[in-house]
Write a structure and sequence with these properties.
Largest sheet: 7 strands, parallel
Strand order of the largest sheet: 3-2-1-4-5-6-11
Number of helices: 10
Bound molecules: uridine-5'-diphosphate
Shape: globular
Number of strands: 13
Amino acid sequence: MTVLVLGGAGYIGSHTVYELIDLGEDVVVADNLQTGHIEAIHSKARFYKGDIRDKEFLDNIFKNEKIDAVIHFAANSLVGESMTNPLKYYDNNLFGTMILLKSMLEHNVDKIVFSSTAAVYGEPEKIPIFENDNTMPTNTYGETKLSMEKMFKWVSKANGLKYVSLRYFNACGAHASGNIGEDHTPETHLIPLVLQVPLKKRKYISVFGNDYETPDGTCIRDYVHVTDLAYAHISAVDYLKHGGDNNIFNLGNGCGFSVLEVIEAAKKVTGYDIPVEISPRRAGDPAKLVASSDKAKTILHWTPKYGSLEKIIESAWIWHKNHPSGFLS
Ligand code: UDP
């Protein structure tokens, strides 16, 4: 099987490519390298540099390669940035996906697995969150991902496309090989920022708000290892290949950890003190997001391997310690 991974030089994309190649699949990567890293692309993948908003670029890939399924990671994904620059998100995430679907339809490629997000739920009414709970995004990022899901739904009805949407909770950790890990510029995610303190790249970690309605006042999230997310994508491709119908799955560990709990776990893993400064809330942040992933476990037979927060942080710590400047190290 040949799988086209859009955004395969990015964080979750590159980890998925590694797992696909480990399984002996043929992999084509497309990435514009705006946020992805050339060093993150597996040497056994065929790489095309370009942008999903460029239809000729996509048409050329579908002409050159015999693609069986697409895994689509090529999107902007920062909550904070999406609140200050919403049109960037509509352009890349929504317009880009529209061009992609046009090109897929023209080349009779009918299977796609796509990165969605817990941000589609907004402020949940209850925890854990199930796939059929209300979707009311509180930020532009989540809104564009929800619109992408709807685009797939309507194109599927009209043109027979088959899709799986994977709503990730908080992706974190790094590959066991130590070759790839998280490297965003600017970094905005909690775990890599926390680990910058023991790496002496920052003096303290800012905690965005301690007045939420949670036991310690800080936001609660469901942290899931990036390799576990990679497995889920591969299971989803397999599910579509075997005739599975359009579907939406949450991917999380089902355990919520507050920002302060993450910092405590990082202190244990690294053996360093990590000073905290309380800052104002970040726009668009819901208080609590924790998944029920029962559906993915039952239907996709997804079995996450990294259950514990400490194990996840440990894998991230190994990556960041050995690559203090990310892929440029
Ligand atoms: N957070 C924080 N300080 C930081 C970065 C993040 O307090 O420097 C909080 C953020 O407000 C959220 C949680 O950590 O409650 C996880 O944020 P992240 O950006 O890692 O992921 P998101 O939940 O936005 O996908």
